[in-house]
Fold this protein.
Amino acid sequence: MIKVFGLFILLGLFSGFCGKSGEASAKFGEKAKFSQNAPVRFDDFTLTYTGERRVISDLPRQGKSSYWEFVYFDFKIQSEKEEQTISWSSGTGDIEPTAFTIGAQNYELELAISDRIGRLAENELIIWKKY
C-alpha cells in the first residue's frame, strides 16, 4: 500500500513538469473556451485573453447626442519567436474576424458569431488558420 501511494506521489510530481500548468489546449477551426489571464495553447502559439477596454469615439452617433462606445477584447499571442497583442471588437455592429500573422502564417480570430459555425457563447472563440 505504501509503495502504491509513493508511486502516485511520484507520478503527480512528474506530471507537474509536463506542459504548463493551467494551460488549456485548443484546435484551429473549433470552439475554444477562454477566460482572463488563462492561456489557451494552439499548435503554433499560445493565446491569452488579457481583458476588455472601452473607447469612446470623438464622433457623435448620427442623429443622436451620444458618442460611439467601442468595447475591445484584447489578446496576447506568444510563439517561440514572437509576441503581439491583438484586439477584437464588434465595432458599430458589423461583426468580423480579426486577422493576425505569426511568423509567415495568417490567422483569424472570431468572437460572438462565426461565419461558418454560427453564434458563439460569451466565453468562446475560434481561431482559423488561413491557407
Summary: The mean pLDDT is 85.
